[in-house]
Amino acid sequence: MAMQPISIERAMEIAKRQGLKPALVRGTERVQFTNGKNRRLAVIDWDRFREILEKRKLQVHESGGWMKIQSAAMRKKR
Questions:
Q1: What residues make up the domain containing 34?
Q2: Helix, strand, or coil (residue 8)
Q3: For the chain, how many structural domains are there in total?
Q4: Helices (H) and strands (E) in the chain — how many of each?
Q5: Cα distance between residue 78 and residue 74, in whole Å
Q6: Is the Cα torsion angle 35, 39, 41, 47 positive or negative in sign?
Q7: DSSP helix/strand/coil, 3
Q8: Per-residue pLDDT of the chain (78 residues; tens, 9 = 90+)
Q9: 42 — phi, psi (to 5°)?
Q10: Cα–Cα–Cα angle for 39, 43, 48, nearest 5°?
Q11: Among 49, 59, 69, 77, fewest CB within 10 Å belongs to which?
Q12: pTM for this entry
């Protein structure tokens, strides 16, 4: 199954079900999902996560419950 773009709300549902939270790689504006156990990641709230995605023109994509953050522009070019 191909990765499909999803809304932040859908990402929140999947993350909650899988015990994941949005996070920043410390010292950067790279976002990813975490279970909260990695010291290199700082858990952030969903509003901040949304702001960073918009600012960096990123989008959450999902396939079979697996999520990936990638450029929204790359997706549109395909």
A1: 4-77
A2: helix
A3: 1
A4: 3, 6
A5: 7
A6: positive
A7: coil
A8: 689 999 999 999 999 999 999 999 999 989 999 999 999 999 999 999 999 999 999 999 999 889 999 998 754 444
A9: -110, 120
A10: 145
A11: 77
A12: 0.85
